[in-house]
Amino acid sequence: MRLSARNRLKGKIVEVTKGQTTAHVRIDVNGTIVTAAITNESVDELGLKVGMGAYAVVKASDVMVGVD
């Protein structure tokens, strides 16, 4: 698969939590956890399971910066 998105973070799935319609998929990317909210249907179609490799793909038109 090829994507136009340049922000692809390779990691390992550490948690998949399904809700009524939406699932939270947590991916460990070199010690940093990235959480994606996707449909339960997508979890099933992709066969997402804890321990498997996956990419967190970030596609956004804006990036916000915050400081304390």
TrEMBL record:
<feature type="domain" description="Mop">
    <location>
        <begin position="2"/>
        <end position="67"/>
    </location>
</feature>
<dbReference type="Pfam" id="PF03459">
    <property type="entry name" value="TOBE"/>
</dbReference>
<dbReference type="InterPro" id="IPR005116">
    <property type="entry name" value="Transp-assoc_OB_typ1"/>
</dbReference>
<keyword id="KW-0500">Molybdenum</keyword>
<dbReference type="GO" id="GO:0015689">
    <property type="term" value="P:molybdate ion transport"/>
</dbReference>
<protein>
    <submittedName>
        <fullName>TOBE domain-containing protein</fullName>
    </submittedName>
</protein>
<dbReference type="InterPro" id="IPR004606">
    <property type="entry name" value="Mop_domain"/>
</dbReference>
<dbReference type="InterPro" id="IPR008995">
    <property type="entry name" value="Mo/tungstate-bd_C_term_dom"/>
</dbReference>
